[in-house]
Structures are given as C-alpha cells and as structure tokens.
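Lab meeting, action items carried over

1. Structure of the two-component assembly. Owner: GW. Status: complete.
Input record:
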Amino acid sequence: MTRRRVVVTGLGATTPLGGDVATTWAGLLAGRSGVRTLTEDWAQTIPVTFAARVAVEPSEQMERVEIRRLDRSEQFGLIASREAWKDAGSPEIDNERLGVVVASGIGGVTTLLEQYDILNGKGARLVSPHTVPMLMPNGPAANIGLELKAQAGIHTPVSACASGAEAIGYAFEMIRNNRADIVVSGGVEAACHALPMAAFAAMKALSTRNDDPARASRPYDLNRDGFVLGEGGGILVLEEYEHAKARGAKIYCEIAGQGLSSDGYHIAAPDPSGAGVQRAVKFALRDAELTTADIVHLNAHATSTPAGDVAEANALRAALGKDADHVAVSATKSMTGHLLGGAGAIESVFIVKALQDRLAPPTINIEELDPAVTVDVVRDKPRALPAGDIAALNDSFGFGGHNVVLAFKSI
Amino acid sequence: MALAQADVLAGLKEIVEEVAGIPAASVELDKNFTDDLDVDSLSMVEVVVAAEERFGVKIPDDSVTDLVTVGDAVNFIVNASK
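Predicted assembly:
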C-alpha cells in the first residue's frame, strides 16, 4: 500500500505583524519589527517593559460575547482557524474524518491569573464559570473543533516552545495513519502578562533592551541578550493529497516528514553538543525521503538567547554538513518575537509562504554576526530560493529538551 | 420594598444581552433560557450572579434549576426582594 501523503491546503495567522497571513508575510518580507513597549501599568513593575503583542486586537475580529467566553489564546486560535478554513475553501467533509490538533505552551494563563485576582478580591461567587474551559491548554483546539464539528479527534500536545510544531507533526501523522482526511493544526500563545514575563525574566531568558524594543530580538547577533515574548497564533489546514486533489483544492506544498527527539540533558538549557537536534533533523529527512542536498531553506528556532542560537546553529551545521552552505536560514523571531507554543506554527506558515513565493524571509537586527554562527543566515532582505523541486525545514525546541523538525517540500 | 416586575425584566434583559449576546428585545417573560435564548448552563451561572449583584437578592443554587423561563427568574427576584 502506498503511503498517504499530506499537503497544506489552508493557512491562517494572527501575529505581531498582522491580523492575517498576507499582512504578516508582507511585514516579514519588509523586515518590520512587531515588538513594542507595553502600555499596561504592570509592565513598569517587571524588569522587561516590552513584548510583541498582536497587531490586530481580537476585539476587532470577533464578536463581544465570543471574546468574554474565550481566553485570549482561544481567540487567537479561532481567528487563525477561520482564516485558514476559508483559505482551504471551507471544504465539505465527513466530520468523522476531520481532526484538530492545536497546541499552546502555557494555555490560558492570563485567565487563571485574572480569576485568581477576582477570587482574592471579590470572593468565590464571582469566579467565572467559564474559567476552566478558558484556562485549559486544550481550550484553543477544543473551541476550533467545536466550531468545525470535528469528530476524528481533537488533540493538544504540550512541549513548551516546541508545542506548535509538535501539533503539526501530530496532525500529519493523523492523516498519514488514516485517522482523518483533514486536520486543522497549529499553535497559539497569549502569555503577555506580568507573571509569565517576570518568570521568564527570572530565568534571565528575556532581553532587557528596554530602551530599544524593536531591536531587542536579534538572533545570531553578537550582542543578543535573550528572547522577546510574542503572542498570536498560526494555523495550517493539512489534508490527504488525493482528497485535496479530488475536490480541486489549492495545494501549497507537501509536509513530507517529521523528526522528533529529546535531549535528556537539562530542564531549560540546550544541550551544547546538539546531539538531540541533529537526530531530529536526521529523522525528519529520513521520514520525508529527502537528503540534505534537497534542503534550500530553514526557519530556525533561533530565539535570540546567548546559548540557544549557537547550539542550534552548530547542530544544524553538523546535521547538514557541507549542504548547509546552500540552506538559507531565516530567524523570523527577530520580527515576531517568540510566540512560545505558537512559534513552530507561525514559522511553519512562513515556510509554506516561502516555498510558494520562493523567498526566504530576512533576519533583522544583526549588527555584528556572532562568529560562532556557522550557518548561512539571510540578513536584512529576503533571499530568492531556487526554482524546481525544493524542500525546507522548520525546527522548534522546547524547555524540557523537546526537539521537533518538520520537513516541507514543493509540489 | 419589593422590586417592580418591569424593572426586573428590564435589568435581566441587559444582563442576558451582556452575558450571552442575546438582543434585549428578544428576552421576554415567556422565553425559555435554554431552548429559546441559547443560554447554556455556564452562562446561566453568570446571569444568576449578575442578577444577585444588580438586584441585591440571593438566588440559591438549588433554585436555579427552577428558573426555566425569563418569567420564572423575574418572579423569583421580585419575591426575593419582598
């Protein structure tokens, strides 16, 4: 029996660069930063006073009553999934063959904290009955599934900053394993709140470049000092190839394989040997029946932390060998900030757009490239990708030592 | 002093519109919260808590299941305010 192939037939996003895919992609190609000083009073009480908030508030894209019953992460999920579903042509499908796999790194943390404030301030009677459905990390997936009446299964893999990529990989397997014909997949995050930001700052993980927010996220720059928290979400509609062809769907590209591994090294620090990342790259290529020679573009995890960027670059160089010379590496977190559980999802959306337009988006804010970085970084301006059959990788890593690599190829 | 039925209905209309997004005009005495207004069990809890705050009455959880229609709720609140 031939293996079921999985293609991308719809895209959706709401990000610090735009309320949809087109605006976001145009912002990326233009090298725009979505990072700004926070206007909330609480921002002045923590060491980091900036973040990459979404460009378009959900209240401009949803009904008021929906907003009050949904955590912000769920709002992002529904906004992006509505765009993606429409982009896919709002397909007619047997609901038992429709799945949803949407992840979040932290879930409805702002709901949890706001309701805790209500509990303390006003008492238990005023705690919202919507609190649990709003704070549960599977809430975004569940709400999307409810809206689309998905019945093949709704799932939420949680692996910190690898969650979004892991969700897409899970969705890919659902179709390949014949559990579903269409799966709405991706990741969201809405953690711009004093507590998560203070907590990341306590780990010394966040940039503290408060005087120059737009230049704070600088992957691969010699003077990078941490990541910039971002919010938003990305959704991909994955579909079995024959199913997509039969209904005359627009097909962006194929998801050809995934590679998963774990470091077994440290709860938060990257393994400096990069062995786990190398294995994930190798597994993804093998699963996709690709070789390093096929890869022309890679959207890196590259969060702008001193340790992470170099460990990743070294691992990629080791995994790709000499073929790394023809891989255009983009670190789009330089513009979007780090969406945690949404990162692997929006970056997969970016890869699909890169393959479609044959353009690798730029990495901004590199004033002085760290000499320890041995991959070919696309700087400042987009770079054309070759014609013909091409393939690209998206890698994502999460606290806990999770490594996920997704392989996409043109079709 | 007991609240007037018309005032309670007007207040409930606002609460149901705020909580569930149902246009105030369609919130009438004979309307069933679940079947006619699509107020689910979670939103009903919000309606009840908001009504307690607004009208200064207690609506015990045991009584909530008896509030099937808007009229039931209005009558309960009017009686509780006596």
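2. GW to write a short summary for the group page. Key points so far: The longest helix of chain B spans residues 5-20. Chain B touches chain A through ten residues (CB under 8 Å).
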